[in-house]
Amino acid sequence: MISESIHEAYVSHLVAGQYDACRDVVEGVLAGGATLREVYERLFTSSLYEVGERWTAGRVTVAVEHRATAITERLLALVFPRALSSRDGAPRAVVACVVDEFHQLGGRIVADSLELLGWDTEFLGAGTPLARLVEVVAEREPSLVALSASLRTSLPNVISEVTELRAAAPAVPIVVGGHAFEPGTEGLFAGLRGVHHVRSLDDLEVFVRGLEG
Ligand code: B12
User: Fold this and answer.
1) What does the alpha-carbon distance between residue 70 and residue 55 come to, in Å, rounded to a whole number?
2) 145: Cβ below 6 Å to ligand 1?
3) Does 48 contact ligand 1 (Cβ within 6 A)?
4) pTM (predicted TM-score)
5) For atom 5 of ligand 1, which residue has the closest CA?
6) Which of 19, 82, 141, 147 is deepest in the core (most CB within 10 A)?
C-alpha cells in the first residue's frame, strides 16, 4: 500500500527536517486507505532505521537524528485517534521500555497499537525503573505486560526484569520486543514461563487476540 517511492520521499523530507512535508505524506497515504499499522511500520519505523544507518555511517549528524525523532513524535500524536471509544471492560496492558533504555518510540507505538486493538493501555515511557514497573503491575493488575528494548546491551536487563516481574506477578503474560532482538535471540526466554518474544505489530495482534480468547 505504501510504495517505495512514497517511502523514499518521506525519508528525504524527514532528513531535511520538513515536518509539513512529512505530515502531507502521512495524510496522503491515510486518505489513500493505508492503515495506521502500515504508517507505523512502513513510514515511522523504517525511516528512523534509515536515519540510524546514516547516523552510524556518519552521513547525518546527531542533530538530524534528534530532529527526525521529534518530528516522528509529533506525527505519532497527530495520527493517533483522539476520540477513543469507552474503555469499560477493556483488558488492561502496561507497556514500558526497560531500564537505561532511552529509545521510547517503539514502546509508544506498541502502546498505541494495543489501544487501537481495544486495550486500555498505560505507557510508562523510556528507561522505566523496575521498581516502578512492579508497582504499576501490582496496582493495575493488567492482562498483559509489554517490554521494549532497542539496544543489544539491554538484553541482560530484559532477562532480569522479566525474571523479577514473573516472581512479583506469577500469572501475567509478558511480551518482549524491539530492535534489540536480532535473529538468534529467540532462545533467551525459553526457561521463563509466560514470556514471549513478539517480532512485529501483526504478530502482537495475533498474540493478544489469543489472550482475548
Ligand atoms: C532515535 C534514536 C536514538 C535517540 C532516542 C530518542 C527517543 N526519544 O526515543 C537517542 C539519541 C536518545 C539515542 C541514543 C542512543 N542510541 Co539510538 N537510535 C535511534 C534510532 C535512529 C531510531 C530509534 C527509533 O525510534 N526507531 C523507530 C522505532 C519505532 O523502532 P523500534 O524501536 O524498533 O520499534 C518497532 C519494533 O521494533 C517494534 N517494537 C519495539 N518494541 C517492542 C516491544 C514489543 C513487546 C513488541 C511486540 C514490538 C516492539 O515495534 C515498533 C514498530 O515497528 C535508532 C536506529 C534504529 N534502527 O532504530 C538508533 C539505535 C537504536 N541507537 C543505537 C545506539 C548504539 C545508541 C546509543 C548507545 C548511542 C550512543 N553512543 O550514545 C545511545 C543509547 C542511549 C540509551 N541508553 O538508550 C543503535 C543500537 C544498536 C543495538 N541494537 O545495540 C541504533 C540501532 C543505531 C545504529 N544503527 O547503530 N538513539
Assistant:
1) 16
2) no
3) yes
4) 0.95
5) 103
6) 147
